[in-house]
Amino acid sequence: MRNKKLNILFFLPLLSVAILAQETKKWTLTECIEYAEENNISIQQQTLNAEYQNNNYRQKKLDKFPTLNGNVGYQLSFGRVPDETTYEYVDQTTQFGRFSFGTSVPLFQGFALRNEEKQSEANWRMSQNELEAAKNDLAINITAYYLQVLFDKELLEVAHEQYRVAEEQVKNTQKLVEAGRVAEGNLLEIKSQSAREAMEVTRMENNLKLSLLNLAQALDLENPEGFDVVAPEIPELEQQALMTPPELFNIAVDIMPRIEAYQHNLASSEYALKVAKGNLYPSLYLDAGWNTNVSKSKNSVDFDFGQRFRDNATQYVGLTLRIPVFNNLSARTGVKNAKLGIRSAQLDLQQEKQTLRKEIQQAYADAEAAFQKFQSARTAVLAYEESLRYTEKKYAVGLVSPVDYSVARADYLKAQSDFLQSKYEYVLRTRILDFYMGEELALD
């Protein structure tokens, strides 16, 4: 018993470490996107729609084959019927059984079946493209949330560093006050500055928690507690040789799923017109079948079920031609509406291409503006860093007031914040441009 207790005590720390490791697992961008695609309800609905359209397509392929149906019937009748021998009407109970098999083969329907199959295939492919487009939109949103977390992480590190420096200044000023080199009021000002830096750390921590919560909710995590992400090493940013918007559009228009979806929608509308025109033509069916019946009255003698079953059996083969003569002009109205459907699908495709072109133009302009902002912010942060360093030296010898020193620190912190924001904005904008060229969203 004692050995069992020792074993339990031995494994408890290991179990705690394992649980802690599981709780503190950090997610990569790829893991976030994959998890979101598997658990997002909208994506699941799109997946169900794609499966539904696939089932319809498979059924339309099977509709070309013959149908075969069997029928079995039984009837019990009571009443006066002619006697089989005397032909006099007598009260009699009769049992009647029917058995039949029949098939019908569509030989010609104005090519409606073939065009319905093509239309169903176009609808199925359109649903697949819509699913991929939904996944792409989700991936972009997840990437934006992910970069916001990285931005808040770096900004929190800056706030921690500023607070550390402020605490050092408090200690240095305390020594200067004790040495009689500066007034005690300077120490109070520096302590106030340190308190503001501590508040800034708290504010940045709250911002980071909020951005992590936003990302966790975008992933539809049931419990966002302990959720965290990997901060990848982002290389030094340099201006990229960006493709022009027309060049990007020529690539994107051929690979974007949402454009393909509208193209398949147009194809579906074209096949719908062919189906509607097929309703104007006659349809021809080949019919074949076999049937028999057996009847037995109460007074029947020498009744042989098998013999009557065989004797009453008949077979048939025939052709049925259905000619549309007048159906309230419904077929011609269907053709007119199908033509309108084609025009509507053409306009939808044209509008989607225009939307894509505008998005690429905007993304290109945003990427260029983001890099210009990044360059300016990088220059500004270097300048404010040098200015703060110079102010710190002057403050150490009592040449500037605590207020001036606080202003210099605040300016430097603002410059760092602008720099980090412009950095991640430029990363996001360039990743979006890469996405339009068919590349996966990634940060490494």
Describe the structure using short key phrases.
444 residues; alpha+beta; Outer membrane efflux proteins (OEP); two-stranded parallel sheet; 10 helices; elongated
What order do the helices and strands come in, and which of them pair?
Blueprint: H1 2-23, E1 26-27, H2 29-39, H3 41-62, E2 67-82, E3 89-108, H4 112-178, H5 184-218, E4 228-229, H6 245-255, H7 257-278, E5 283-297, H8 305-311, E6 314-322, H9 330-396, H10 402-436
Parallel strand pairs: 1-4
Antiparallel strand pairs: 2-3, 3-5, 5-6
Helix pairs in contact: 2-4, 3-4, 4-5, 4-7, 4-10, 6-9, 7-9, 9-10
Summarize it.
The chain has 444 residues and is α+β, with helices and mostly antiparallel strands.
Query: Into how many domains do the coordinates divide?
Result: 2
Number of helices: 10
CATH topology of the largest domain: Outer membrane efflux proteins (OEP)
- Give the H and E element order: HEHHEEHHEHHEHEHH
Overall number of strands: 6
How would you state the average pLDDT, rounded?
Answer: 83
Helix content: 55-70%
Going by helix content, strand content and strand pairing, the class is: alpha+beta
Shape: elongated
Largest sheet: 4 strands, antiparallel
What is the first-to-last residue Cα distance? 54 Å
CATH superfamily of the largest domain: Outer membrane efflux proteins (OEP)
Instruction: Give the spatial strand order of the biggest sheet.
Output: 2-3-5-6
Proper CATH architecture of the largest domain: Up-down Bundle
CATH class of the largest domain: Mainly Alpha
